[in-house]
Amino acid sequence: MDLPLLITGGYDHTLRYWNAHLGQCFRTIPYNDSHINCLEVTPDKTQVLCAGNPLMKLFDLSSASNTAVSTMDGHTSNVTSVGFEKTGRWFFSSSEDSSVKIWDCRGTGYQLSLDNESTSTATMATTASAPVPVHGAALHANQAEVLLGDQEGRVQARITAVSQAKQPRELSAVNH
């Protein structure tokens, strides 16, 4: 698409393509499975990934079809964020199901699931480890770590490579 494109989605179960200069919606795609929590355009700007509860769907931007080219199923609750690494070979998703998942765009299913568990002393006293919903995530500029924010207010850095998936590194607040 040559025109400046804005893509929106929301609780009305609709994906919309807009001409950004004119502010006019020129295409709508029904997203009947759920509301849309977040979306991300692929780095090559040919597709858009939409995420709801709990599915994610990939749509071809140049296609006239309203059918997704791919559907990703792996979360059990609201998907709260998605993002692609810079070459578009893989993407991540975070969810209220307390996980961050790494997906290979060339394959099916997720390749890595990083579970987010509580480190709260109060929670640890009652359970061995309790899952904590992930409210947002972003890919670090180094393209190797996903930064996640969770319901307990923590921000953590998680390694995305399967061979290096170790304990989370919690980031502490810096006061200036």
Helices and strands in order:
Elements (H helix, E strand, L loop, with lengths): L4 E5 L4 E6 L4 E7 L7 E4 L5 E5 L4 E5 L9 E3 L6 E6 L5 E6 L3 E6 L5 E6 L5 H6 L7 E6 L5 E6 L4 E5 L9 E3 L5
Antiparallel strand pairs: 1-2, 2-3, 4-5, 5-6, 6-7, 8-9, 9-10, 10-11, 12-13, 13-14, 14-15
| Biggest sheet overview | 4 strands, antiparallel
Rounded to the nearest angstrom, the radius of gyration is 17 Å
Annotated CATH topology: Methylamine Dehydrogenase, Chain H
First-to-last CA distance: 45 Å
Overall pLDDT score: 87
Shape: globular
What is the share of helical residues? under 10%
Give me the CATH architecture, please: 7 Propeller
SSE ordering: EEEEEEEEEEEHEEEE
The CATH first-level class comes to Mainly Beta
- The order of strands across the largest sheet is 4-5-6-7
Give the tally of β-strands. 15
Low-pLDDT segments, ≥5 res: none
Secondary-structure-derived class: mainly beta
Number of helices: 1
* CATH level-four homologous superfamily name: YVTN repeat-like/Quinoprotein amine dehydrogenase
Total tally of structural domains: 1
* Strand content bin: 35-45%
GO biological process, one term: regulation of actin cytoskeleton organization
InterPro entries: MLST8, WD40/YVTN_repeat-like_dom_sf, WD40_repeat_dom_sf, WD40_rpt
Family: Belongs to the WD repeat LST8 family.
Keywords: WD repeat
